[in-house]
Automatic annotation (TrEMBL):
It comes from Enterococcus durans. Residues 107-183 form the Beta-ketoacyl-[acyl-carrier-protein] synthase III N-terminal domain. It is found in: Cytoplasm. Its EC number is 2.3.1.180. Pfam families: ACP_syn_III (PF08545), ACP_syn_III_C (PF08541). The lineage of its organism: Bacteria, Bacillati, Bacillota, Bacilli, Lactobacillales. It is an enzyme of class 2 (transferase). GO terms for biological process: fatty acid biosynthetic process. It comes from the Bacteria. The last Arg residue of the ACP-binding site is essential for the weak association between ACP/AcpP and FabH. This is Beta-ketoacyl-[acyl-carrier-protein] synthase III.
Amino acid sequence: MEQFGTITATASVLPEKIITNEDLSKMMDTSDEWIASRTGIRQRRCVTDQETSDLCYLVAEKLLKKRNTAASELDFIIVATMSPDYATPSVAVQVQGKIGAMTAIAFDISAACSGFVYALSLAEKLIRCGSKKGLVIGGETLSKLIDWSDRTTAVLFGDGAGGVLLEAGNEQKLLAEHLAADGTRGTSLTAGYHHNASPIYTEDSEGSFYLKMVGRDIFDFAVRDVAKNIKEIIKDEPVDYLLLHQANLRIIEKIARKVKVPQEKFLTNMDKYGNTSAASIPILLDEAVTSGRITLGKKQKVVFTGYGGGLTWGSILMEL
Ligand code: ACO
């Protein structure tokens, strides 16, 4: 019998340490006024002693507890992240080991701020191909990728993790999707370059470990390509909520005007957490579920839209 992926639980974990704009203005030449007016961000969370895998593990535990599910029931764990602890083992396989999901396959995907949407799309295909249950988690510790002396990027990002439990059901819940990528624009946002220190390697390495972004290019890309992508997904169908990657409030306001959907349908929380890349959409979803705005099983139509490094972007329309 045909089966489809259904989101049956949501969870999120934020580090305790809060860094306000005021705190940042004591560390670099910036101000609450500049940051809040340009981005909508007022504070962010930063890890003091946790890795990305620690945050994702806590999300996984919460998800299993919420549905009273044993780790042994999981078929897959996918983590979307651009700030893994190691190149290997992946964050997902560390989570698999810690929760003891020994029959689950586990792997990370790297699609920057589109990571959760990419991972959710892929996970839903795994369910259509026969998997019964799995975790899709977005988790980041971007604080380690940031040059804390660069005010143009340091004020934008935060740490956190969120995720969903995806289970097989008979009803089609993923109604439409449109994912995209454009590697020719990849230099607009780079992070995590590792110099090749091998004695065999002869070139001078040019990349930077720290996150570098041509902010204006990403802004324009988001307003143009991402708005078009959302229009293609929703067509003229009414939707209940749109959960976009939380990079910048001004981007969301401009997209709302372009797609002609009332601003209040676009949920936001970047004021509290900044840009948490692959974690931003599942954190936002979990908050919406916790606050009662979204009730799983109530058949609300929700759009998830990611966009960022790669460049990558994409939207999924789901009935929750
Ligand atoms: N505090 C004070 N002044 C600052 C700061 C700061 N933190 N940062 C930059 N400035 C200054 C600049 O130096 C510049 O000064 P100048 O005019 O004297 O040269 C001035 O403010 C304007 O700088 P811009 O970079 O032009 O500012 P802009 O209005 O474009 O806003 C921003 C920058 C917020 C980064 C915006 O471009 C943006 O949001 N871009 C999109 C980012 C995004 O969406 N990323 C998502 C993907 S992230 C991912 O995939 C991981």
